[in-house]
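During the second year of the project, the team shifted from modelling isolated chains to modelling whole assemblies. The rationale, set out in the original proposal, was that interfaces cannot be judged from single-chain predictions alone. As a representative example for this report, we include one of the complexes processed in the last quarter. Its constituent sequences, exactly as entered into the pipeline, are reproduced here:
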Amino acid sequence: MSTRKQHIVVVGNGMVGHRFVQELLAVHSDLPAAGIELTVLGEEPRPAYDRVHLSSFFSGSSAEDLSLVEPGFYQRPGLTLRLNARVAGIERRRNTLQLADGEVLAYDKLVLATGSYPFVPPVPGSDRPGCHVYRTIEDLEAMQASGATSASGVVVGGGLLGLECAKALRDMGLRTHVVEFAPRLMVVQVDEGGGRILRSKIEELGVQVHTERNTVDITDGATARHRMVFADGSWLETDMIVFSAGIRARDELARQCLLAIGPRGGVAIDGHCRSSDADIYAIGECASWNGQVFGLVAPGYDMARVAAAHLAGSAGVSFSGADLSTKLKLMGVDVASIGDAQGRTAGARACVFTDELKQVYKKLVVSADGKRLLGAVLVGDAAEYGTLLQMMLNGLELPEAPEQLILPAPDGMAKPALGVDALPDGAVLCSCNNVSKGQLCAAIEGGAHTIGELKAATRAGTSCGGCVPLVTQVLKAELARQGVAVNNHLCEHFAHSRQELYHLVRVEGLRSFAELLARHGRGRGCDVCKPTVANILASCWNDFVLKPEHAPLQDSNDYFLGNIQKDGTYSVVPRIPGGEITPDKLIAIGEVAKRYGLYTKITGGQRIDLFGAQAHELPRIWGELIAAGFESGHAYGKSLRTVKSCVGSTWCRYGVQDSVGMAIRLEHRYKGLRAPHKIKFGVSGCTRECAEAQGKDVGVIATERGWNLYVCGNGGMKPRHAELLAADLDEATLVRLIDRFLMFYIRTADRLQRTSTWRDNLEGGLDYLKAVVLDDRLGIAAELEAAMAQVVDSYACEWRAALDDPAARKRLRTFVNSDAGDDNVVFVPERGQIRPATAAEKQMRFKGIAVVPETV
Amino acid sequence: MNARSASAAVMESVEVSAGAGAWQPVCALDDIWPDTGVCVLLDGRQVAVFRLADGSLYALDNHDPHSGANVLSRGIVGDLGGEPVVASPIYKHHYRLRDGVCLEDPGTPLATYAVAARDGLVWLHC
Ligand code: SRM
Ligand SMILES: Cc1cc2nc3c(=O)[nH]c(=O)nc-3n(C[C@H](O)[C@H](O)[C@H](O)COP(=O)(O)OP(=O)(O)OC[C@H]3O[C@@H](n4cnc5c(N)ncnc54)[C@H](O)[C@@H]3O)c2cc1C
Ligand code: SF4
Ligand code: FES
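Output from the structure prediction step:
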């Protein structure tokens, strides 16, 4: 071999192009050592991002959230990524290519990963301003800008992408229409019966569907920006239009340099992903294998793996087509299509179940001998997707009565499930990332014992997420098989999860730890179950937490109604709703701090924290604060912390609603609410979001028409953007939805699970949450609202209650037999205030600022 | 059965074997709510005294060596594997009430003290 470096050039830094680089690096982690120089040329202004989840851009994900590229990934020796670099031509005889700006680059091997472009039907007027396509982040930004000045929108094309796009328009608050040329929606994936149910479900969601409409002209509208004229003479007026009428392979470079092209477009490739020129490969949506182009990411990833392996010298792996089964959630409607969904195989027989009331349609396509599953269509409920897909892919024998697979199970009877044990090791469970059951088992054996670890180790479940239920089943089965105990028991005293205990408390009306322990536990309890149960009791009944039967259950923080600090002192955080405070109250806080020698700091939650109080000082400090009009800030509880606000329309020139007023009302409503973990809110007066509401458990953002409600955001250890739950709400609806959301969280979350982790673990995800909170799918909304009303109505300031209760107050002391303070608490001055002395400083017995003179 | 019950008879037998030091009343029994602790200050020494729901009493150093803070009396009491323990409120180390051994770090146990109840008072021997 020559010592000259081999220069590999990748054209396109999309999903597949990027995966190719990852695959090549997996083989050659040290490119210079392998004699490889790798250059990636991407036309877009940013590195590869997750196009599959592009729509989440509209529900709050940023371009960074969507990025597939880890920071620093492209900064390694031998690897160059150039963005805004479009390749304009290829000179095969010279092994060179030319960039749009004229620069010429030489290559040894070229990999085309140019993807595809949205097809726009050649209708006059289709290039008018306000006409869009849906493929890149820039397209979405343009749609957002148009949407802001539009009242209505039309999507041309009722396929998978078109419906996703319609959802985006509807979420922007537009009157939305879908115009489809064919007689039904999703013609490729769904048969006629399924199409009918799908249509009525989508129309129910407020999207108008027009089938068999062929657009022939787009002109000025009379009531809206555009008028779309159809072949039958009818027309529709709209402010914006998005074309989603299919995609076409971006094979223009291949055509220009005369490579072989597939019958339906696309660069023709062989099983090693090589084009008709042995130095040029093509992968992803721009490639045509066996006359077929694939509009899904999984086959593209497979091609990336094959091409990388072939370039690295192993001819053993090859691409052999892909299964195009899909499962989607379109506007909250489950749609799935498996294998031969249309029943085209000779002799195929179908078995159909339709429920027009529940709007569910399910069809099985079975082989002539009735033994094998060939395909299936599921609309309205796709719970069986994973099972059916594996049956089809692995040719598993169908059960005696295959219709049982799709018929609703009679109450109490289990459905014939596909035991994951029945699957062969080779069964590919995650098709996006080509991960087999065997690989999953190996990773579990290797120590991946949570779904998160398993995802990290194998990539399974990290793309469309459709395989997660099956992957979870394998994980559970495998852990059980390896004898790893899998239980969600709270601790050794309760063989129940937090959620189960919550239900027991509610259903049996239990009001104390002792009752619960006697009925459902054993032993005396511990520092895990006691605070958890105390918290559940408080969420349900909201009794005073320092009653004699509850006090022993409380963590020191709840017991002393303050946060314990490293030296055993406590912090004092009065509630400052919405962060709004009068000068008099500021002065009152200042005076208390001065009198008791406390350290003061503005917290990250828009209020003031006073540090350095000993247990016996707390009652007096709080007595003074309460006299000045303050109440407990619950900084110590697993409860509502702060509702952060921005100044809003009252002062701010951009504000569209009174965000401070709203924040204060929300803080007063939910203060004192105990929950599995702390809860934070934010309320912003406009889309500039100065209150960072999208980083909160509950985020409220003002709109011209009301309030948008975001949920499950988190700052802290693992930041997570909140997701839009509902838009343009009036105050009463907003409060009702927050009531339901919070109570549902309180009922179902695990111990110490913030809303963000709860949401990430919620089966069914955001759509399920919406179904429960907005559509009341579980029929519990009224109950949740009533439970919240009970907590709201029984609110009392805990510090006031503690001071008013002589027995409780008496316990809030440092020593039971002395009024002295703990002499191990030593402060030294720093920047004009106190701080705890270090161990070394204490050793020197250097006692700094004298704290409070002891009286009482 | 737990080692110490709040009966005078037990206290007497403890007294016989207690050696140096003396019994002193430190607080009313009612000052300690069942299943909680309090801190007693005795000649500059801080002792955490716990009263369990079954009436048994325990006393050990209030100082939590793992955090360096005097806080053990403010920990949650309970049992692990049937053994009564207190969890430090700072970093949640568990100390056995019976002998002061830290379950997470059994090296140097905390000092424990004899304690008993009589005439509605809690008596400590140290
Ligand atoms: C005082 C304060 C820091 C400050 O000086 O600004 C603070 C202090 C503590 N934080 Fe915090 N956090 C404070 C704002 C925040 C914020 C900012 C915010 O609220 O906007 C965050 C990130 C936002 C979020 O929570 O999403 C924050 C994320 C955390 C976390 C990580 C939570 C997570 O789910 O990722 C913890 C650890 C935990 O809760 O398990 C934590 C835990 C703590 C604890 C309770 C740790 C402890 O057990 O000692 C600290 C004691 C509070 C005390 O003594 O009063 N603190 N903490 C802030 C009090 C705000 C208030 O007024 O109530
Ligand atoms: C809204 C939406 C939803 C989708 N949902 C799903 C789904 O649920 N499941 C699924 O499997 N698939 C889905 N897809 C399809 C999936 O995104 C594609 O299959 C995947 O992105 C294909 O990857 P690719 O790398 O081949 O093409 P792309 O990701 O499009 O990347 C091609 C890149 O090459 C660049 N490029 C093109 N020509 C040149 C040139 N001459 N010079 C330099 N750069 C060039 C392009 O700018 C682009 O960045 C969806 C697509 C969209 C748009
Ligand atoms: S979020 Fe909007 S209204 Fe609030 S302060 Fe910022 S710019 Fe002003
Ligand atoms: S099948 Fe899409 S992530 Fe696994």
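The pocket of iron/sulfur cluster (ligand 3) is lined by residues A 646-648, 652, 654-655, 659, 684-686, 688-690 (CB under 6 Å). The first helix of chain A runs from residue 15 to 27.
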